[in-house]
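# nightly structure sweep
# worker-07 picked up a monomer target from the shared queue
# config: single-sequence mode, recycle default, output format = structure tokens
# input follows
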Amino acid sequence: MTAELDCVRARRLLVDDHRGRLDSPTAAVLASHLDGCAECSREDAVERVLTEQLEQKLPQHAAPLALKRRLAASIPAARRARPEPARGAGRRWVLAATAAAALVAGGVPLLLWLAAPNTPRALTAEAVNDHLRILARARPLDVETGDVHQVRPWFAGRLDFAPVIAFGGDAEFPLRGSTVEYFLDRRAAVVVYGRRLHTITLLVFRADALPWPRGAGAAATRERGFNVRLWRANGLGYALVSDLDAAELARLAARLGG
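# output follows
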């Protein structure tokens, strides 16, 4: 990691930082950037609040003791001992206020994203959460293009798998662009399509160890007012989410291979 970060690279590290995945030098460089960049600092605060609010919408699950022990063993001692770096009084106030609100509301399930993926309902809820995260961001996409030949190569080096995107958009469902997001404990390719004024989010990720639907067709469900289509192909999980009419979403899913 270089001594300095630009805003684009800094914002890509925010989720990793929130989930404790950055090594100490990288976290320190990010903290320094956030101290000196008001815009990225606001983005960081908004991202943290959004994550906490989304997590509170999911059902609460107690983490099994074996999982807690595996998590404790997987966190480096230096990371556990390192204090949270100072990132400005304004940010500390925002984080303290949201943490207090979470405690009053019953506590944010910090291990939920690892403890809950045993149920299809939790997977559907996570897909909707990722869709809401895209909708909430001022600049939701890293690549804004309708050309799938620009989208596919962009994922190289940013994921530990090659996402298969079978549909490059058309006049009915134009391609808008792409980014990378987390789906539970793994990175996911995010491809966004449009339909009139509707936003449609496609998530593609490794499906190993997840109870993802199997079979030739997509599983259709509805969560918090959003229609969701789930399917699996060649070891990858696919989630398609939108407030679009269910029949129209099914047409897009069919073009994507679902």
